[in-house]
Amino acid sequence: MSQLLHDVSASYVIGVDVGTGSARAGLFDLQGNMLHVVKQDITTFQDDNARFEQSSENIWQAICTSVKAVVSASALPTKSIVGLSFDATCSLVVMGQDNQSLPVGEHGIAERNVMVWMDQRATEQARMINNLGHSVLNYVGNRISPEMQTPKLLWLKTHLPETYHNAQHFFDLTDYLTFRASGSLARSICTVVCKWTYLAHENRWDNSYFEAIGLEELSATQFSKIGTDIVPPGTALADGLTDDAAEQLGLLAGTAVAAGLIDAHAGGVGSVGARTEEGTASPAECLAYVFGTSACTLTTSSSATTVPGVWGPYFSAMIPGTWLNEAGQSAAGAAIDHLVSMHPAAPKASLLAKDAGFPLSVWLSKQAQTKISHASDAVNLAKNVHVVPEFLGNRAPFAEPNARAIIAGLDMDKSIDSLITLYIAGICGLAYGLRQIIEAQANQGLNIAHVVISGGAGQDPLVRQLIADAIGKEVIAPKADEPVLLGTAMLAAVAAGKHSNVESAMRAMSSFGERYPPNLSAEHQKHEGRYLAFLKLQSAARELQSIC
Q: Which stretches of the chain score pLDDT less than 50?
């Protein structure tokens, strides 16, 4: 949009999304229109044994660069930008005395003070916690994940006691960013309920849990290191931007800073309460499927429902006053990228994709579309190849971090056509994993009518139709190109007092776009057969692990 079209007398907000690989800043008006977006890469350090680390300073500097650039691109006076909010991955940030970074690995590099969400080093600690069977597990689907923070804290205490005991603050990444911006130590209900075992429906931490698992120090210090001020997303924090943060971001001191969300939950806020032609959708009818590097499903309801293997029920973690069940796939877009990279034709296809200006997965989708007359026909391209793409374990509904991928039906074909077959089979595998989650929730009474898809990997119309056909539910795309950024911007608007609460911001700032009804013809029946094959292969993989 041209700079000349911006109304300098109007108010605007900025949402910042920190994903696994980049920080993005988006400028929005109060109707939910995104005017500018800027992306800045961040660095991830990958070591052996599924260890992933980042630097909080590197992330903050990427945010500053992005925000400054988006403000510059808008040519707006900074006084017209009234609110700022953050969403981020649920990564663990460790800070010591005087807000100095502390290392989270044996390497001793202090700058590497972030244990990334997908880091699996705490698998044994998670298993130990699950074996104890404490009552707080009733609110994480009865099984805690190594992606969550208390197993990671226990790993730090066991393997890096100096870091653990010298830490002054343990933050979820979102809460670290709001602290860095405003100086407030308040934590978002979203982060502490979903990843730290805070019981929001009772407004308390459970002392006995921390004592039982060996983190009694946190209980003894009244939880000051992990959060004593727990607030709803969208709450205005402290006095807004500090002088220092404002200078670094290129904004005015005092600009409202909102308590934030986990990135996937921001996508839920930015999509499931959207306007339809008939009115406003009920969020309870819509499952949010945030399909990016990983995939997250978010289902809201009016009452607490426990689904084995599905995280939650969480109270007020996304939409205030409602319960949330959260599931998903630990590797989604990343699983497809990894899958196709293994094929002999991948180097040649990657060069062709680069020449065409597309990522390899997008290029493969476009090639697939030249071979079919309708998107639903793409299932035929999968032929007899079947993929269970659990390269990083099964997040739901089995909560099994040691689960692994399985690929069946490969031959010795090294052609690009064979690579396309593998790509389509991989997309189908992800869709069947989503169907499995939907069915597990339906078995406990959580029935949904629509899947609202967002995330970079979910923007492809072919992918959307394949998913709709595979799950037998309508897939809807939000009208917003960036619903995760939009959901975060909504919080900024609430903190600035421009919308009265999160629900009103959802109604005012979002709407539905394209809809993809499932094809229930013979092509759908092919998905039925392939889904049964998926279940059998998944079961076989578990059996193999038990005997090998």
A: 1-4
